[in-house]
Amino acid sequence: AITSTSSTSLLSSGTKPPGLPGISTPSTVQTSQVSTVQDLIQNSECLIRSLTSPDLFGDERDGIIAKLNQLLSACGIGNGYYKGDQQPVSYNAENPFYQFKAIGYSRRSDYCDSDGIVALTLGINYEQLSSATQRQKFIDSMNVILGNNTNVRAHIELIRPLPDNQTEILLYVTEKGKGRSSSKELCAFLKQPAQDTQLKNQLCVVNVLSRTIVDNVKKNAFIKNPPAGFDSQIWQQAVRDNPDPDKLLPYPIRGFEQLRKRQELQAAEIRLEERVIEELKQRLVQINSKLTAGQNQCSYQRFVF
After folding, report:
1. Residue 20: CA count within 13 A, CB half-sphere
2. Burial class (CB in 10 A: 0-12, 13-18, 19+), 118
3. What is the DSSP letter of 86?
4. How far apart are CA 48 and CA 232, in angstroms?
5. Which tens digit of pLDDT belongs to each residue from 8-43?
6. pLDDT tens digit sequence for 211-267
7. Which residues, by range, are in coiled-coil regions (predicted)?
8. Cα Dmax for the chain
9. Could you give all domains of the chain from N- to C-terminal order, each with its CATH number?
10. Helices then strands (H, E): number in the chain?
Protein backbone atom coordinates (compact mmCIF):
# COMPACT_ATOMS: atom_id res chain seq x y z
CA ALA A 1 0.00 0.00 0.00
CA ILE A 2 1.19 3.53 -0.72
CA THR A 3 1.57 5.77 2.27
CA SER A 4 0.84 9.40 1.56
CA THR A 5 3.46 11.76 2.91
CA SER A 6 3.87 15.48 2.90
CA SER A 7 4.96 16.99 -0.39
CA THR A 8 8.13 19.01 -0.58
CA SER A 9 9.15 22.24 -2.21
CA LEU A 10 12.39 20.70 -3.46
CA LEU A 11 11.61 20.97 -7.15
CA SER A 12 9.68 24.22 -7.07
CA SER A 13 12.87 26.23 -7.34
CA GLY A 14 13.26 25.28 -10.99
CA THR A 15 11.87 27.27 -13.85
CA LYS A 16 8.11 27.15 -13.98
CA PRO A 17 6.78 25.48 -17.13
CA PRO A 18 5.31 27.91 -19.66
CA GLY A 19 1.69 28.09 -20.56
CA LEU A 20 0.11 28.61 -17.15
CA PRO A 21 -3.47 29.81 -17.58
CA GLY A 22 -3.99 33.53 -17.29
CA ILE A 23 -7.07 35.64 -16.60
CA SER A 24 -9.38 36.36 -19.52
CA THR A 25 -11.89 39.17 -19.58
CA PRO A 26 -15.58 38.21 -19.63
CA SER A 27 -16.08 39.80 -23.05
CA THR A 28 -13.30 37.68 -24.53
CA VAL A 29 -14.73 34.50 -23.07
CA GLN A 30 -18.24 35.33 -24.27
CA THR A 31 -17.03 36.13 -27.81
CA SER A 32 -15.01 32.90 -27.92
CA GLN A 33 -18.01 30.84 -26.80
CA VAL A 34 -20.30 32.41 -29.41
CA SER A 35 -17.73 31.85 -32.14
CA THR A 36 -17.29 28.21 -31.12
CA VAL A 37 -21.04 27.55 -31.16
CA GLN A 38 -21.45 29.25 -34.55
CA ASP A 39 -18.57 27.22 -36.02
CA LEU A 40 -20.05 24.03 -34.62
CA ILE A 41 -23.46 24.72 -36.15
CA GLN A 42 -21.96 25.66 -39.50
CA ASN A 43 -19.72 22.59 -39.59
CA SER A 44 -22.65 20.34 -38.71
CA GLU A 45 -24.76 21.84 -41.50
CA CYS A 46 -21.96 21.32 -44.02
CA LEU A 47 -21.47 17.74 -42.85
CA ILE A 48 -25.17 16.88 -43.20
CA ARG A 49 -25.40 18.57 -46.57
CA SER A 50 -22.38 16.65 -47.90
CA LEU A 51 -24.09 13.37 -46.94
CA THR A 52 -27.64 14.12 -48.08
CA SER A 53 -27.81 16.80 -50.75
CA PRO A 54 -24.56 17.69 -52.50
CA ASP A 55 -25.00 20.16 -55.34
CA LEU A 56 -22.15 19.67 -57.81
CA PHE A 57 -23.67 18.56 -61.11
CA GLY A 58 -27.40 19.12 -60.77
CA ASP A 59 -28.30 15.60 -61.90
CA GLU A 60 -28.24 11.96 -60.72
CA ARG A 61 -24.46 12.13 -60.22
CA ASP A 62 -25.05 14.17 -57.06
CA GLY A 63 -26.81 11.12 -55.57
CA ILE A 64 -23.74 9.00 -56.32
CA ILE A 65 -21.52 11.64 -54.68
CA ALA A 66 -23.79 11.57 -51.60
CA LYS A 67 -23.40 7.79 -51.30
CA LEU A 68 -19.64 8.08 -51.72
CA ASN A 69 -19.51 10.75 -49.02
CA GLN A 70 -21.58 8.54 -46.72
CA LEU A 71 -19.08 5.71 -47.21
CA LEU A 72 -16.13 8.02 -46.53
CA SER A 73 -17.71 9.45 -43.38
CA ALA A 74 -18.51 5.94 -42.10
CA CYS A 75 -14.82 5.06 -42.54
CA GLY A 76 -13.61 8.38 -41.15
CA ILE A 77 -11.34 9.17 -44.11
CA GLY A 78 -11.15 11.56 -47.02
CA ASN A 79 -13.05 14.73 -47.89
CA GLY A 80 -16.68 15.21 -48.87
CA TYR A 81 -17.45 17.64 -51.70
CA TYR A 82 -20.94 19.09 -51.74
CA LYS A 83 -20.81 22.45 -53.56
CA GLY A 84 -18.42 23.79 -56.15
CA ASP A 85 -17.67 27.10 -54.44
CA GLN A 86 -17.32 25.63 -50.91
CA GLN A 87 -14.44 23.89 -49.19
CA PRO A 88 -14.96 20.12 -48.79
CA VAL A 89 -15.83 18.59 -45.44
CA SER A 90 -13.01 16.60 -43.86
CA TYR A 91 -14.11 13.24 -42.44
CA ASN A 92 -12.26 11.86 -39.42
CA ALA A 93 -12.85 9.35 -36.64
CA GLU A 94 -14.60 11.98 -34.51
CA ASN A 95 -17.48 12.61 -36.90
CA PRO A 96 -20.81 11.23 -35.60
CA PHE A 97 -21.29 8.92 -38.61
CA TYR A 98 -17.99 7.08 -38.10
CA GLN A 99 -18.86 3.40 -37.64
CA PHE A 100 -15.71 1.75 -36.29
CA LYS A 101 -15.97 2.83 -32.67
CA ALA A 102 -16.85 1.34 -29.32
CA ILE A 103 -16.76 2.11 -25.60
CA GLY A 104 -14.56 0.25 -23.13
CA TYR A 105 -13.53 0.85 -19.53
CA SER A 106 -10.21 1.98 -18.08
CA ARG A 107 -9.07 1.74 -14.48
CA ARG A 108 -8.74 4.98 -12.53
CA SER A 109 -5.41 5.67 -10.88
CA ASP A 110 -5.20 4.88 -7.16
CA TYR A 111 -2.48 7.46 -6.53
CA CYS A 112 -3.07 10.93 -5.15
CA ASP A 113 -0.85 13.92 -5.82
CA SER A 114 1.02 13.60 -2.52
CA ASP A 115 2.11 10.06 -3.46
CA GLY A 116 4.37 11.74 -6.01
CA ILE A 117 3.98 9.11 -8.74
CA VAL A 118 5.14 10.07 -12.24
CA ALA A 119 4.90 7.69 -15.21
CA LEU A 120 7.87 7.59 -17.59
CA THR A 121 7.44 5.87 -20.95
CA LEU A 122 10.77 4.54 -22.23
CA GLY A 123 11.45 3.53 -25.81
CA ILE A 124 13.28 0.37 -24.76
CA ASN A 125 12.26 -3.24 -24.21
CA TYR A 126 11.22 -4.43 -20.75
CA GLU A 127 14.04 -7.00 -20.76
CA GLN A 128 16.58 -4.19 -20.61
CA LEU A 129 15.25 -3.24 -17.17
CA SER A 130 14.35 -6.66 -15.80
CA SER A 131 17.40 -7.22 -13.57
CA ALA A 132 18.25 -5.49 -10.30
CA THR A 133 21.55 -4.23 -11.75
CA GLN A 134 19.85 -2.61 -14.73
CA ARG A 135 17.26 -0.96 -12.51
CA GLN A 136 19.96 0.40 -10.21
CA LYS A 137 21.72 1.97 -13.20
CA PHE A 138 18.44 3.63 -14.13
CA ILE A 139 18.04 4.98 -10.58
CA ASP A 140 21.63 6.28 -10.59
CA SER A 141 21.00 8.14 -13.85
CA MET A 142 17.77 9.61 -12.48
CA ASN A 143 19.58 10.84 -9.38
CA VAL A 144 22.06 12.69 -11.60
CA ILE A 145 19.22 14.29 -13.57
CA LEU A 146 17.62 15.34 -10.26
CA GLY A 147 20.75 17.30 -9.39
CA ASN A 148 23.00 14.62 -7.87
CA ASN A 149 21.96 15.71 -4.38
CA THR A 150 22.63 13.09 -1.68
CA ASN A 151 19.45 14.16 0.13
CA VAL A 152 17.28 13.64 -2.97
CA ARG A 153 16.69 10.14 -4.25
CA ALA A 154 14.57 8.57 -6.96
CA HIS A 155 12.65 5.34 -6.31
CA ILE A 156 10.93 2.87 -8.62
CA GLU A 157 7.34 2.07 -7.71
CA LEU A 158 6.58 -0.28 -10.61
CA ILE A 159 7.89 -1.36 -14.02
CA ARG A 160 5.58 -2.80 -16.64
CA PRO A 161 6.02 -3.74 -20.32
CA LEU A 162 4.14 -1.85 -23.03
CA PRO A 163 3.44 -2.66 -26.69
CA ASP A 164 5.84 -1.59 -29.44
CA ASN A 165 8.93 -2.50 -27.35
CA GLN A 166 8.27 0.24 -24.81
CA THR A 167 8.36 0.17 -21.01
CA GLU A 168 6.53 2.20 -18.37
CA ILE A 169 8.21 3.09 -15.08
CA LEU A 170 6.28 4.56 -12.16
CA LEU A 171 8.71 6.75 -10.27
CA TYR A 172 8.70 8.91 -7.15
CA VAL A 173 11.28 11.14 -5.48
CA THR A 174 12.00 11.68 -1.79
CA GLU A 175 13.97 14.37 0.00
CA LYS A 176 15.58 13.58 3.33
CA GLY A 177 13.54 14.93 6.21
CA LYS A 178 10.66 16.14 3.99
CA GLY A 179 9.17 13.09 2.32
CA ARG A 180 7.90 12.73 -1.22
CA SER A 181 7.70 15.47 -3.82
CA SER A 182 4.20 15.90 -5.21
CA SER A 183 3.38 14.27 -8.52
CA LYS A 184 2.58 17.52 -10.34
CA GLU A 185 5.69 19.21 -8.97
CA LEU A 186 7.97 16.37 -10.05
CA CYS A 187 6.32 16.12 -13.46
CA ALA A 188 6.75 19.87 -14.08
CA PHE A 189 10.41 19.65 -13.06
CA LEU A 190 11.14 16.72 -15.40
CA LYS A 191 9.46 18.51 -18.31
CA GLN A 192 11.79 21.50 -18.10
CA PRO A 193 14.00 21.75 -21.23
CA ALA A 194 17.27 20.70 -19.57
CA GLN A 195 15.79 17.72 -17.74
CA ASP A 196 13.66 16.74 -20.73
CA THR A 197 16.75 16.61 -22.95
CA GLN A 198 18.65 14.49 -20.41
CA LEU A 199 15.75 12.06 -20.06
CA LYS A 200 15.52 11.62 -23.83
CA ASN A 201 19.25 11.28 -24.49
CA GLN A 202 20.29 9.22 -21.47
CA LEU A 203 17.23 7.10 -20.66
CA CYS A 204 15.27 7.05 -23.96
CA VAL A 205 12.22 8.62 -22.27
CA VAL A 206 9.51 9.46 -24.79
CA ASN A 207 6.76 10.69 -22.45
CA VAL A 208 6.33 11.98 -18.88
CA LEU A 209 2.93 12.02 -17.16
CA SER A 210 1.69 12.84 -13.67
CA ARG A 211 -0.13 9.75 -12.38
CA THR A 212 -2.90 10.93 -10.06
CA ILE A 213 -6.49 10.00 -9.40
CA VAL A 214 -9.22 11.85 -11.30
CA ASP A 215 -11.15 13.88 -8.73
CA ASN A 216 -14.94 13.65 -8.59
CA VAL A 217 -15.49 17.05 -10.21
CA LYS A 218 -13.47 16.12 -13.31
CA LYS A 219 -14.92 12.61 -13.30
CA ASN A 220 -18.51 13.88 -13.30
CA ALA A 221 -17.73 16.39 -16.06
CA PHE A 222 -16.12 13.63 -18.13
CA ILE A 223 -18.96 11.12 -17.87
CA LYS A 224 -21.63 13.82 -18.36
CA ASN A 225 -20.36 14.95 -21.75
CA PRO A 226 -20.02 12.30 -24.49
CA PRO A 227 -16.77 12.32 -26.50
CA ALA A 228 -16.80 13.81 -30.00
CA GLY A 229 -18.70 11.60 -32.41
CA PHE A 230 -20.52 9.52 -29.77
CA ASP A 231 -24.28 9.63 -29.32
CA SER A 232 -25.21 10.94 -25.88
CA GLN A 233 -27.71 8.14 -25.22
CA ILE A 234 -25.16 5.43 -26.06
CA TRP A 235 -22.54 7.15 -23.89
CA GLN A 236 -24.91 7.48 -20.93
CA GLN A 237 -25.90 3.83 -21.34
CA ALA A 238 -22.21 2.91 -21.09
CA VAL A 239 -21.97 5.04 -17.94
CA ARG A 240 -24.93 3.17 -16.42
CA ASP A 241 -23.48 -0.21 -17.44
CA ASN A 242 -20.13 0.51 -15.77
CA PRO A 243 -19.37 -2.67 -13.76
CA ASP A 244 -17.37 -0.76 -11.13
CA PRO A 245 -18.04 3.03 -11.17
CA ASP A 246 -15.62 3.67 -8.29
CA LYS A 247 -12.62 2.14 -10.09
CA LEU A 248 -13.47 2.27 -13.80
CA LEU A 249 -14.22 5.03 -16.30
CA PRO A 250 -15.83 4.61 -19.74
CA TYR A 251 -13.30 5.12 -22.48
CA PRO A 252 -13.92 5.83 -26.21
CA ILE A 253 -12.24 3.51 -28.69
CA ARG A 254 -11.97 4.72 -32.28
CA GLY A 255 -10.72 2.47 -35.04
CA PHE A 256 -8.79 -0.77 -35.23
CA GLU A 257 -5.46 0.73 -34.11
CA GLN A 258 -6.82 1.89 -30.75
CA LEU A 259 -8.54 -1.45 -30.26
CA ARG A 260 -5.33 -3.30 -31.09
CA LYS A 261 -3.39 -1.06 -28.70
CA ARG A 262 -5.73 -1.91 -25.82
CA GLN A 263 -5.50 -5.60 -26.63
CA GLU A 264 -1.70 -5.44 -26.63
CA LEU A 265 -1.71 -3.57 -23.31
CA GLN A 266 -3.90 -6.29 -21.82
CA ALA A 267 -1.62 -9.01 -23.21
CA ALA A 268 1.45 -7.22 -21.80
CA GLU A 269 -0.24 -7.00 -18.39
CA ILE A 270 -0.98 -10.74 -18.47
CA ARG A 271 2.64 -11.53 -19.37
CA LEU A 272 3.83 -9.35 -16.49
CA GLU A 273 1.55 -11.20 -14.06
CA GLU A 274 2.83 -14.54 -15.36
CA ARG A 275 6.42 -13.35 -14.93
CA VAL A 276 5.74 -12.26 -11.34
CA ILE A 277 4.07 -15.59 -10.54
CA GLU A 278 7.03 -17.49 -12.00
CA GLU A 279 9.48 -15.40 -9.93
CA LEU A 280 7.44 -16.13 -6.79
CA LYS A 281 7.53 -19.86 -7.59
CA GLN A 282 11.30 -19.73 -7.94
CA ARG A 283 11.62 -17.89 -4.63
CA LEU A 284 9.40 -20.48 -2.94
CA VAL A 285 11.58 -23.27 -4.33
CA GLN A 286 14.70 -21.52 -3.02
CA ILE A 287 13.11 -20.96 0.40
CA ASN A 288 11.96 -24.57 0.54
CA SER A 289 15.48 -25.76 -0.31
CA LYS A 290 16.99 -23.59 2.43
CA LEU A 291 14.35 -24.81 4.88
CA THR A 292 15.11 -28.44 4.05
CA ALA A 293 18.85 -27.82 4.43
CA GLY A 294 18.24 -26.16 7.80
CA GLN A 295 16.10 -29.06 9.01
CA ASN A 296 18.77 -31.55 7.92
CA GLN A 297 21.41 -29.53 9.75
CA CYS A 298 19.31 -29.48 12.91
CA SER A 299 18.77 -33.22 12.70
CA TYR A 300 22.50 -33.77 12.26
CA GLN A 301 23.32 -31.57 15.26
CA ARG A 302 20.85 -33.50 17.43
CA PHE A 303 22.39 -36.76 16.31
CA VAL A 304 25.93 -35.58 17.07
CA PHE A 305 25.15 -34.13 20.48
Report:
1. 4
2. buried
3. S
4. 18
5. 344 444 433 333 233 333 343 343 444 455 666 677
6. 998 888 999 999 999 999 999 999 999 999 999 999 999 999 999 999 999 999 888
7. 270-297
8. 110
9. 39-90 (no CATH), 107-210 (3.30.70.3310)
10. 8, 9
